[in-house]
Design brief:
- With about 110 residues, this protein is α+β, with helices and mostly antiparallel strands.
- The protein has one domain: GMP Synthetase, Chain A, domain 3 (2-Layer Sandwich).
- It has three helices and three strands.
- The chain has helices at about 10-20, 65-75, 100-105; strands at about 40-45, 50-55, 80-85.
- Strands 1-2-3 form a three-stranded mixed β-sheet, covered by helices on one side.
Length: about 110
């Protein structure tokens, strides 16, 4: 499975995705975008953002901590006022979702 392609429609959604690169998974030490956890970004004209994402495992113990960090980062984008997280388990995350950068950072060799 290739890394998910996050489809964005606007410069604001691109800014949200860029801002999400500042959110580091505390267990892995790599940002959630390069880990391939973000499946979609949708920002309405009135500044409500919905992220579709997954976690590395269903029982991920840092889910709530990560959600707080995500909301804080996303609402730093000037045009975004709220951030809802749509947590999904399909498609399931696996190592192939990660970018080359993440694989190199975690010393995973293909």
């Amino acid at each position: 499975m290739a890394q998910p392609v996050v489809k964005t429609k606007s410069p604001v959604e691109e800014a949200v995705l860029k801002q999400l690169e500042t959110v580091i998974d505390p267990e892995l030490g790599v940002d959630i975008v390069n880990l391939g956890l973000i499946y979609g970004v949708d920002v309405t004209d009135d500044g409500n953002c919905t992220l579709t994402m997954t976690l590395t495992t269903m029982g991920c113990p840092i889910g709530n901590l990560l959600a707080d960090s995500i909301r804080q980062a996303v609402t730093q984008v000037p045009a975004v006022h709220t951030c809802a997280i749509n947590l999904v388990w399909e498609p399931a995350w696996d190592l192939s979702n990660m970018s080359r950068y993440a694989k190199v950072a975690l010393e995973l060799h293909e």
